[in-house]
Amino acid sequence: MKHILDLRPPRGAPYPVWCGADVERGLEHVWRELNGSSPRRAALVSDTTCDALFGDTLFALLTRLDAAPLRLTFLAGEEHKTRATKASLEDAMLTAGIDRSACLVAVGGGIALDLAGFVAATYKRGIDHINVATSLLAQVDAAVGGKTGVNTELGKNLVGAFHHPRAVLLYTGALATLPPSELRCGLAELIKHAVLRDADLFGELERWAESPAVAGGDLRPGDELIARAVTIKADIVAADDRDAGVRNLLNYGHTAAHAIEAASGHRCPHGEAVAVGMLVEAQVAASEGRFPAADLQRLTTLLSTLGLPVAPPTRFADAAAFVAHDKKVKAGAIRCAIPRAIGQSEPEHDGSWTRTVSLAALERAWEALSCSA
Ligand SMILES: NC(=O)c1ccc[n+]([C@@H]2O[C@H](COP(=O)([O-])OP(=O)(O)OC[C@H]3O[C@@H](n4cnc5c(N)ncnc54)[C@H](O)[C@@H]3O)[C@@H](O)[C@H]2O)c1
Questions:
Q1: This prediction's pTM
Q2: According to the model, what pLDDT value does residue 323 have?
Q3: 126 alpha carbon to ligand 1 midpoint, in Å?
């Protein structure tokens, strides 16, 4: 594994981000860095799928490191990212006598990292945790930035805490077993980061998308592209880890995406919804002369080459009610974060990183994309 950056949040300790295939070496290294020679217990938390794939190896390593690991699992799936699952993990840790000096090792996709990170945030008023990201989405997005939480009956991620990990391992070797549909969802977020901040990375992605590997069905983007994408998120989080300013940019595409997900009864996966959401919001900006039409075309081509959808799967009428309920709605107006061009984002005149979009403009963009598909 390679050390790619140290994320320095505005408050709290800086933490290293490592990337690569050799997760045992990576975890051993960060464990020793964090703990020196003093023994410390570990709680190893993952969903049942990731536990079956990676649990034995990591459990054996933590045992060798004298961490007397407690191995805990929960059922995979968004429906299990709940307060009830969190409570059952906490109860198991309390029963096993895990104390405040322990370190939680979260292993898996964004669900495992969000849920286990939230356990770490509140267990005995907060313990350290290390994120081992095994899905592409977690590697380019969820593993860094300190947002943890669970869903409730009323919506996703409604209860949670900001709690940065002490170290992050982007375990890219794990992508060998990740289903293509999950790889595509991660690719949508990776592309989003390039569109926000890095035109060179976008160009690299275009070249990679045309490569024989992708044509042959291998959608794993490689360590270099993953490292560049997570660096963009880390830079943004280092400037604003509480959504007070520039972090709002990471919501690009998400206002439309959340409405698509909700209107589809959550049958449309988040990453696919983000792909379409980015196009809808870029189309809004393009129609106002605030996003180049040529860039919109490049984005459409890249997404469709990678098998991501490029037209809304639902009618605007079905999605409109959910747009109005989005948490990014401010004072009755829809707020969207939209870059100015591929690789280029800037604040509005008032210093804000989001801007007002009317429901009518969103509808026109929605219809334009539906018609051109
Ligand atoms: N905290 C943040 O900043 C942040 C950012 C983006 C998304 N999220 C959250 O992340 C979640 C989505 O994350 P996700 O897409 O990784 O979902 P996920 O955690 O459900 O993982 C997707 C599926 O792939 C499986 N999986 C993971 N790694 C695997 C591997 N290497 N091989 C085989 N299967 C594997 C998982 O068991 C799961 O079934 C959402 O709950 C979202 O709210 C959080």
A1: 0.96
A2: 81
A3: 23
